Amino acid sequence: MKHPEDEDRADHVALIQAEWRRERPDLDVSPQAVIGRLHRLAARLTAELTLVYQRYGLGEGEFDVLAALRRAGAPYERAPGELAAHTMVTTGAMTKRIDRLERAGLVTRRTAEDDRRARVVALTDAGLRLIDEAFTAHMRNEHRLLAHLGPEEAAALQALLTAWQRRLDGTGPERPAL
Known about the structure:
Structural class: mainly alpha
C-alpha cells in the first residue's frame, strides 16, 4: 500500500516546497505547486514533442515554420514577417530558420507578385510532403501524451489554461470573486 509520504518523496516539486518551507517559513511557497509543476511538465512535453520532429530531420523551429506555411493553405506561402508573427520569433531568428529550410529544399523564397520589394516564402513539394507526414506523427504523439488524462480532465485543464492565459494576456475577464 502506498503512503502519502511516498508520493511526496517522488514529487520533486513537493520536495522543493518542503525545503523552502523549512528554510524560509516566512514565505508562502504555495505557487510552486502549480508553477513548478507546469514548468517541469512543459520541459517534459517539449522533450517528447521534439523527438518526433527529430525523426523528420527537423528542429522545433523548422517544424513551426513548415506548419505555419501548411496552415496558410494553398499555395502554402507567407511573408517572412507574417511567419515570424505566427511562430512568435524575431525576424532575425526567422531568417535563420528559412535559410536552413531553403538549403534542405523544403521552402523557396521569391519576390512577391504585388510588391517587388517584398519577399514570400513557400513550401516546396518536398516540404509539403514532409510537413504532412511530420504533422500526422505529431498529432499521434500529442494524443498519446494527452491520453494520460481522461476526456473530462483534459477539457477542464484546457478551460483553466485558456482562462489563465487570457487573464495574463489581459484579454480575458477578471478572476471571479470567491
